[in-house]
Each structure stands twice: as C-alpha cells, then as structure tokens.
Automatic annotation (TrEMBL):
Keywords: Membrane, Phosphate transport, Transmembrane, Transmembrane helix, Transport
Family matches, as InterPro entries: Phos_transporter
Family under the similarity heading: Belongs to the inorganic phosphate transporter (PiT) (TC 2.A.20) family.
Bilayer topology term: Multi-pass membrane protein
Molecular function terms, GO-annotated: phosphate transmembrane transporter activity
Localization per record: Membrane
One annotated GO biological process: phosphate ion transmembrane transport
Protein name, per record: Phosphate transporter
Source species: Paracoccus zhejiangensis
Domain of life: Bacteria
TM region(s), chain numbering: 35-56, 62-80, 92-117, 141-160, 172-192, 198-219, 231-254, 260-282, 303-322, 350-369, 389-406, 412-429, 464-489
Keyword Magnesium tagged: no
Length: 494
C-alpha cells in the first residue's frame, strides 16, 4: 500500500514539475513575443543591405550604398507603422474592417501604389529644400542624405512609440534641412519653401476638419435627423457614394497616378465628374436593394456606408503608396546615383530594387507595428461609425484636390487626423446644442454639473495635445537630429 502511495506522490511531484516547466515555457513565449516583430524587421533591414550589395557590386562607394539601403529600409518600415494608420484607422474604428482585413488591404494597395505609380523621377533633395550644388563634394552630399534618412526614420519611430501620427514628408524635409545646414550653412536652405511647409501645419488639419464637418452636417441634416431615415438614405446615399467615387477618381488621376499619366487639373476633375455620375446612377438600385427591410434607426444606416468606406480606404492606400514611398527611397536613390556617377544631381531615376525596398518596407512596417496607430486614429481620439469615417476619408481626398488647385502645401497625415478631430469636435458641439434645446424646452431640469460636462467630451484632449505638439516639433526635431548625425558621420568618414 505504501508503495502505491509513494508512486502516487512521485507522480504528483512530476505533475507539479511539468506544470512548472509549462508555466516557464509560457512565460518565455510571452517574454519573447514582443521581440518577434523587431526580429522580423531586423531581418528585412539586413536583407535590404544584402540586396544593395549584390546589385551595386564591389566599388569604392558600395559600403555607402549598403548602409544607405539599410537606413532606407528602416525608414520604409516606420512609414508603414505610422503613416498608413491615417488611411485605415477610420475604417477599423467604424468596424467596417477588422484589423487583419485592414492590414491585408493596405499592404496590397500600398505596395501596388508604390510599384505601379511610385514615380520614375523623384526630387531627391526633398522638394527643393536644399540645393545639391551647394554641397562641397559628392561625398558630403551622400553623408547629408544618409543623415537625413536616418534622422527622419528615428523621429517617426519615436512618434509611433508615443502614439502620435506625424507627417513622414515633414520628417524627411526636416532631416534634409538639418543635414544641409550642418554641411553648408544656413544659406543652403530654401527658406521660402520652409515657410510654405510651416503654413501647411495649420492649413492641412483645418481644411481636412472643415470638409469632414461639412459632410457630416449634411448627413445628419438630410438623413439621420429625418423622420424616415431609410427613405432619405435611398435618395442621398447614392449621391454621397457618387461624390466619393468622383473625388477619389480625380484624386488618383491627379496625385496617385501622376507618374504614369500626366494630366491637368481640368482633365482630372472632368474624369472625376464622369465617374461620379456613372457611380451615382449605378448605386440607386443597389442602395434600394440594400435598404429593403431595414429598420428606421441610425444603426441601419451603417450597413449602407460599409462598402464605400472599405473602397475609400483601399484607394487612399494606393495613392499613399504612390506618393510617400519617395520619403523612404528618394534620399536612397540620390545616394545610389551619386555613388555610381560620382557627380551631384537634382533628380534621379529610382532603380527597381530601391522601389522594392520602399514598397515591401511600408507593408512590413504596417503588418508588424501598424495596429497601435490604427487604433489611435480609429478609436482613441473620438468614436467613429461608418458615416463619420466616410466623412474623414472623403475629406482627405477632397482636401488634397482643393489644396493642389490653390497651390497650397498639405500633409495627408495632418488632413486625415484633422478630419477625425473635426468630426469629434462637431459631435461635441452638436450634442451640446441639442442638450441646450432640450433644457429650453424643459426649463425646470437642473443644468449638468461641470464634472458631467467634462465626462461627455467626445474628443480626448490628451491625445489632441500630444498630436499637435508632435506636429509642431517634427521639422525642428528631425533637423536637429539630422545635423548631429551628419557631424558624427562626417567625423567618422573624415
């Protein structure tokens, strides 16, 4: 009997030991999980350097190109982690897309935009910020571009870590400016261009917010606040979808496909008008079928905006990939061209392998690190539903067209986030207005205490202040970091 008891005790001890090993294994897996994404990112960065080395071959400047390719891959990862959230955040926040679906769609369309329409020629000195001929030597120019690339990537990485969507274009501009000043003095910078970029800090979010608010007000007035919401939706949703199709068509022709087909503003607007009218006509029977049997309440309206919102997110991603891939690979392409020719140049063709690094880097960055900023833009600034998210997406495309027509510099990041803020603040104002009307109708009801009024704020002020602060300091922070990095690189190389 005692033998049986001893065996039972041994088995019990063994179970406890196995349980400890299992717990230890789970703990090790949990501890290692945060390292998986950085590990995959590191492998991609090393592969980019390897591809650069194999492509450019052995030459005097091959090491410079390999290091630059590593920096470019790092920047592309950060663009995917930070910038793409502006396109996908509203659709995820409105529950029109799951996080996995958003990442899949964005990865496909970002890569397609970068590879199909990413541009044969890019101004490698960040849109006229500094003049290459002002640099003393081709080597100095390459050091400056490397410092700009690394500093902008580090700044975007920091912004992603603190949860602030920033403009990657402004980060690159700040990096180029700082390296240019450190290498050739204040006179190398095009200060009139810098003034217009500073103006865009105000113009972009204000335009995005105002246009988003205008569409949300229209939807509320014409559909949501109507006695028969479904009947109103049958009239106006086809119109709104037609506007969306027309605006996005003009947006893609003007901005996303400008490297494939060069067209004027008039042609792009006419293209948008035709596609918008056709879409409106097609959507009338579609919306009539979709709305059949729906209850007369706000929740039913969300069904009608789901597909347009997903399509808009995909189109925004395509245009973003077509345009912002240059932020990752423009300086890299400049370094490659200078290293191969030994001469300074204003604009260069981007080799295919460089474009691949940019395209796949953006997709990897989105997949590995993007969910944090997608949640921030989609859920944590203000609550979005398909109607509000639709207004944000539409304002992003429409603002770019208006700004291009007026010749104003704008940031797609600032526009999209400004649209989210605009929708949230408009909801606060509209809620307050209706409460005031209710109190006027029933004057005996006591006013809400200050604590309750603060609790009902629909925009998180902490996120608002963090994002605004990050926007304001992006250019100077990237410039200062770039100047320091250039001095370090120049010292090491010298």
């Amino acid at each position: 009997m005692s033998r049986i008891e001893d065996e039972a005790r041994h088995l019990e001890t063994l179970d406890r030991d196995l349980g400890r090993f299992s717990t230890l294994e789970n703990a090790a897996a949990y501890a290692a999980r945060p390292m998986v994404a950085p590990g995959i990112a590191l492998v991609f960065i090393l592969l980019a350097g390897l591809i650069a080395g194999l492509t450019i071959g052995l030459s005097g400047n091959s090491l410079i190109v390999i290091i630059a390719a590593v920096f470019g891959a790092y920047m592309a990862l950060n663009i995917g982690a930070n910038d793409v959230a502006n396109n996908m955040g509203p659709a995820v926040g409105a529950n029109a897309l799951t996080m996995g679906g958003a990442i899949a769609i964005a990865a496909i369309f970002e890569s397609a935009g970068a590879l199909i329409a990413g541009g044969d020629v890019v101004s490698t000195i960040a849109k006229g910020i500094v003049a290459p001929e002002a640099m003393a030597t081709p080597e100095t120019f390459m050091w400056a571009m490397m410092a700009a690339l690394l500093s902008s990537a580090l700044w975007v990485n920091l912004a992603t870590w603190i949860g602030a969507p920033v403009s990657t274009t402004h980060s690159v501009v700040g990096g180029v400016m700082g390296a240019g000043i450190a290498s050739a003095g204040l006179g190398v910078v095009n200060w009139s261009m810098m003034t217009t970029i500073a103006a865009s800090w105000v113009i972009s979010p204000l335009l995005g917010g105002l246009i988003a608010v205008a569409f949300l007000w229209f939807i509320k007035a014409r559909i949501i606040y109507q006695p028969d919401k479904i009947a109103a939706a049958r009239v106006w949703v086809p119109v709104l979808v037609g506007i969306m199709a027309g605006v996005f068509s003009a947006y893609l022709v003007l901005k996303g496909l400008k490297q494939l087909i060069h067209v004027s503003m008039g042609v792009s607007l006419l293209t948008g008008l035709v596609i918008g009218i056709v879409t409106w006509a097609v959507m009338i029977p579609v919306i009539r079928r979709q709305s059949a049997g729906l209850e007369n309440r706000n929740k039913s309206l969300k069904v009608l905006f789901g597909i347009p919102l997903i399509v808009s997110a995909a189109l925004l991603s395509f245009a973003h990939g077509a345009n912002d891939v240059a932020n990752a690979v423009g300086p890299l392409a400049a370094i490659v061209a200078t290293a191969q020719s030994g001469a300074l140049t204003d604009a260069v063709g981007i080799p295919t392998w460089v474009m691949l690094i940019g395209a796949f880097g953006i997709s990897f960055g989105l997949f590995l690190f993007g969910p944090k900023l997608i949640r921030m833009v989609g859920n944590q600034i203000t609550k979005l539903n398909p109607m509000r998210a639709y207004c944000v997406a539409l304002s992003a495309a429409l603002t770019v067209i208006v700004a291009s027509w007026l010749g104003l510099p704008v940031s797609s990041t600032h526009i999209a986030v400004g649209g989210v803020f605009g929708v949230g603040f408009f909801r606060e104002w509209d809620t307050e207005r209706r409460l005031r009307q209710a109190r006027e109708a029933m004057p005996d009801n006591p006013p809400l205490p200050p604590e309750e009024r603060r609790r009902r704020k629909l925009v998180r002020r902490s996120h608002f202040l963090t994002i605004i602060a990050a926007w304001v300091i992006t250019v100077p922070a990237a410039a200062l970091l770039s100047a320091l990095l250039f001095l370090v690189i120049d010292f090491i190389a010298g």
